[in-house]
Amino acid sequence: MAPVSPRTEGASRTRLKAARLSPRDVLHVGSAGLRSRPVRVVLSALGIAIGIATMIAVVGISASSQAQLMRQLDALGTNMLVAKPGEGMFSGQEVKLPKDAPGMVGRIDGVQEVGATGDLKQSVRRTEKIPKDETGGIAVKAATERLLDVLRGKVAAGTWLNAANGRYPSVVLGHVAAERLGVTEPGQQVWIGDRYFTVVGVLGPMPLAPEIERSALVGWAAAQQLLSFDGHPTAVYERSTDASVRQVQKLLAPTVDPRNPQNVDVSDPSAALQAKAATEGALSTLLLGLGGIALLVGGVGVANTMIISVLERRHEIGLRRSLGATRGQIRIQFVAESLMLSGLGGLAGVGLGAAATGVYASSGGLPWVVPLWAVGGGFGATLVIGTVAGLYPAVRAARLSPTLALHAA
Amino acid sequence: MSTVVRLSGVTKEYAGGVRALDGVDLTIGRGELLAIAGPSGSGKSTLLHIVGTLDRPSAGTVEIAGFDVASLTDRRLSALRSQHIGFVFQAFHLVPGVSARDNVAEGLLYSGLPRARRRALAADALARVGLADRMKHRPHELSGGQKQRVAIARAVVGEPALLLADEPTGALDSASGEAVMELLHDLNREGATIAVITHDTEIAAGLPRQVRIRDGRVVADTARGKVAA
Ligand SMILES: Nc1ncnc2c1ncn2[C@@H]1O[C@H](COP(=O)(O)OP(=O)(O)O)[C@@H](O)[C@H]1O
Ligand SMILES: [Mg+2]
């Protein structure tokens, strides 16, 4: 009765096999629901975006600060050691370093430069009318000419102590000292001991020797002549080759004071900076925890959106089943949708977090560092969240009876 | 004559004890156009779902396009639907926000054909239902009758062995309803096997064969010359 059909039953029997969806088709069916509800997409991806942004920013900001410190360390070097008088054997006993300590240190193998300071029992004041004991926390020290080079310090304004300006009373101020004294430029005068000294220079920041930042430095010979300096150094700074640092560290105390090496404290100022860099690298657990909670809440939001999406799209699910979609294909559709939803949140979060880091870095003059592992980890986390959040709704969608799903609402 | 559908002794009981189908025997040959008619609640939709392999019977055997449905896994049943069965629903079930052409192409999504081929066939099918000039219109830009023609194009784009239509004119005014029935007649003349479910006796009377069911039983089938009691 019927015309011959091109499909014969015998041939089709062997071909009854569900076709696979291409990746592009999965993308297509997975994004269909998102495209039709853009506002909901934004709102439900927001939680994940905030969580990822927080984490990226926490990691990025600490990495940027750390990079800044490492940069500083690179510039300052880790090959400087300082020898200072330690505590005496009996408490209260004043310990002094020998006068020729800098010279002795200079003869240690590997030592390249030596500088020294000697504390003076003097105060520095803006004028003679200010009472003597108002030191403002500023120390007066005698300094050797080599000191600045050893510290790799810079003169921010004016000049460093030298033979020419050493002939009349001159002083160089650390930048904190200058600020506290209200000295803004070289040429101004300050009162030390019983006379005015001319400020010939103001130093820049000295991260390796913060004590110098708060000092007024007078030439070694001038200090002896004008301020009754006894010539005993209270700090010997030395720079050696990188390879000999450990060796020099061992020899420093016995060289400075061969008879009482236990009276000498040897320290490595770069160690403090290195320790600081390590703590900057340690992440703020509190903020990371907050980011994690936001991420969790975001994941719950995505799961919630997906459950609603499945409920709303019962008819579509029934239709797709009637068009020949397998349960697995329905599952994939909703997992893909959930993945895209949280992936969008993750993408936005990475962007926001990186931008926040950039703003922080540029306002603090830091290098902008967003570690790749954080970006990868953050994005990976959103994919895991997307899969977990989408799995249950997707399984429910796939289990829906096609006939119930098609039932007119 | 080659057989597309063979049901024997098909019974469907829903949870709660409702017996929606009760020992239905039904054979549909290739190229037939028939009405499955009966009052509301008589079991027509249940029958369509079982013939369309969307549901399995509680008892009895179902054979579609030569396959014994009971022996097929859910995956293979899905493949059977994608290759051999097309559905038209009273409520159209078009995907909102998507063009007519893309809606029709969805009918081939699970067939394994590449996307470009699916879109080309969709354009042909839309032309075949007289909507060549509505390719880019989205469902909300189409009238009810046009929507149902898009749905019919989607159902026939894969050239299924069997087209099942559940109250296809139920949501349409009488003029659009007549146009849809005319289209189904045309498709049948071109070789399609079509079963139309309807509670409308007038529509049923316009088709070459009528199967009447009541309370889940076939009470009349013009192919067998049986007459209602
Ligand atoms: N999913 C279901 N669960 C329970 N009873 C159902 C279900 N679907 C249909 N029925 C019942 O089965 C009978 C036949 O329903 P149906 O096949 O939809 O009839 P028709 O399409 O002819 O109106 C009705 O009594 C209906 O209430
Ligand atoms: Mg019905």
From TrEMBL, chain B:
Residue ranges of every copy of the ABC transporter domain listed in the record: 5-229
Record-linked Gene3D superfamilies: P-loop containing nucleotide triphosphate hydrolases (3.40.50.300)
InterPro entries xref list: AAA+_ATPase (IPR003593), ABC_transporter-like_ATP-bd (IPR003439), ABC_transporter-like_CS (IPR017871), ABC_transpr_LolD-like (IPR015854), MacB-like_ATP-bd (IPR017911), P-loop_NTPase (IPR027417)
Protein name: ABC transporter ATP-binding protein
CDD domains: ABC_MJ0796_LolCDE_FtsE
A GO molecular-function descriptor: ATP binding
Keyword terms of this UniProt record: ATP-binding, Nucleotide-binding, Transport
The keyword Flavoprotein is annotated on this UniProt entry: no
